[in-house]
Amino acid sequence: MGSYSSVRAVGAMIHRFTNGVSASSFITRSRSSLSMVASISSTSSFPLHQVKFSDYQQRNVSTFPPVCMGRRSSKIAGRKGAQDAKKAKLYSRIGKEVVSAVKKSGPNPISNTVLAAVLEKAKELDVPKEILERNIKRASEKGQEAYIEKIYEVYGFGGVSMVIEVLTDKITRSVAVVREVVKDYGAKMADPGSVLFKFRRVRVANIRVTDANKDQLLAIALDAGAEDVIEPPTSEDDSDEDRLERYYKIVSSTENYAAILSKLREEGINFETDHGSELLPINTIEVDDEAMDLNRELMSKLLELDDVDAVYTDQK
């Protein structure tokens, strides 16, 4: 929590300086100081604001205008960052699975059926070849341990539940960092099985709402044997730009997943794959704005951890 306070303190300082330096620090009582301010004002190439103060006499003080970033530019940068982070998590998880498979039965996919299955999944998910080759080599390095999958369950805010998927070569490290983040953000670790039953494991293809309409996706889903097409959640506070960044989810069994992706490619529809599977909530919970923001902050911080591959929630 201390780091969070530090960030807020730095933010307050930045806010102060980008919105005009404190006037009191510029109210001078000597001619030399006034001359210095006048000199800065006349020679600076930046646009300056003129602010008047009354003390013993009228004085003019020049300050720099606020530094701002356009709202649209900020949103685009945020979306790109989120997409890059999602892709990095996918590559990381596949890399860990490759290492574990090689550690178990060697680097030859002909004799190592587990590795063959991982490589096939990586091909399906469009993971670059160099990622796979790098991790096959990494598995033979001295001191590299196999990765173990762990699941942690969390009680969030407003009655929301979370499931954290971890793939780690150090279980003690992973549980320690996860517990620390959950505690720092005021949430609570749950006992195994307390939360997981609220979710079901499926394969999912994600399609941005601007790339297809629901009727089109329903036709593809029926033809390829999908289980469902889930519409993206919406909020009254969403802007038009926010709505355009929502995704449909085509839900499928493992057996029909390849057929669905193939059908989407045939129709020329862009899509994002899952990480090999996803946990979807059986029922969703609606919470107030405060709880929603707290849950999002917690999930975002958990996803920054190297050992964490995915975080799922039943928040609506």
Could you characterize the architecture of this molecule?
With 316 residues, this protein is an alpha+beta fold. It has ten helices and eleven strands. Helices cover 46% and strands 20% of the residues. The strands form three sheets. Strands 6, 7, 8, 9 and 10 form a five-stranded antiparallel sheet that branches. A hairpin with a 5-residue loop joins β3 and β4. The protein is globular, with a radius of gyration of 27 Å.
Annotate the secondary structure layout:
Elements: H1 2-18, H2 31-43, E1 49-54, E2 58-63, H3 71-105, H4 113-124, H5 129-139, E3 148-155, E4 161-168, H6 171-184, E5 188-190, E6 199-208, H7 214-224, E7 228-230, H8 240-244, E8 247-252, H9 254-266, E9 272-273, E10 278-281, H10 289-303, E11 308-313
Antiparallel strand pairs: 1-2, 3-4, 3-5, 4-11, 6-8, 6-9, 6-10, 7-8
Helix pairs in contact: 3-4, 3-5
Low-confidence stretches: 3-78
**DSSP strand count:** 11
List the quaternary state of the chains. single chain
Q: List the secondary-structure elements in sequence, H or E.
A: HHEEHHHEEHEEHEHEHEEHE
Tally the helices. Answer: 10
Q: In percent terms, what proportion of residues is strand?
A: 15-25%
Mean pLDDT, to the nearest integer, reads: 78
The value of Rg in angstroms is 27 Å
Instruction: Describe the global form.
Output: globular
Which secondary-structure class do the elements indicate?
alpha+beta
Q: Residue share in helices?
A: 40-55%
**Span of the ends, CA to CA:** 27 Å
| Main beta sheet | 5 strands, antiparallel
